[in-house]
Design a protein that fits this description.
The chain is an all-beta fold and about 120 residues long. It has strands at about 10-15, 15-25, 30-40, 45, 50-60, 60-65, 70-75, 80-85, 90-95, 100-105, 125. Helix content is about 0%, strand content about 45%.
């Protein structure tokens, strides 16, 4: 058994915000848990080809949109979305406040991954 405090973890600047990697591959739990902060007014082009991800909104607001334009989910506290098919997507934080998510990845992240949001296509890891 072990415990971690978010404020004692060095955050990873993932591209458009901070990710506090609470559980990572080295913890040998089989999944990663992150407290993800998405900066207000940002739009991130993301895709996880090697991971499945579920996100639970705990603060702020925004949207997640399928890259093909098919599905848009409004994000407010209490909403969970799952990227169960390695979906390319846009993660959008509202212009007036940061969006905060609890993110779970399977398989787990190493913990040092960052997005390349300036490149063409969707950033992935």
């Amino acid at each position: 058994m072990f415990a971690r405090e978010r404020d004692k973890i060095e955050p990873v600047h993932w591209g458009n915000g901070l990710s506090y990697r609470l559980l990572v591959e080295a913890d040998q739990m089989g999944f990663t848990v992150c407290h993800t902060v998405v900066e207000a007014g940002t739009k991130s082009r993301l895709e996880y080809r090697r991971h499945l991800e579920a996100c639970y909104c705990i603060a702020g607001s925004g949207q997640v949109q399928a890259a093909d334009g098919g599905t848009t989910i409004d994000l407010v506290p209490g909403v969970l979305y799952a990227l169960n098919e390695h979906d390319a997507h846009f993660l959008i934080a509202s212009p007036d406040q940061d969006l905060e998510l609890i993110s779970v990845f399977n398989p787990p992240l190493r913990g040092d991954e960052r997005h390349s949001l300036d490149s063409d296509g969707f950033s992935q890891y």
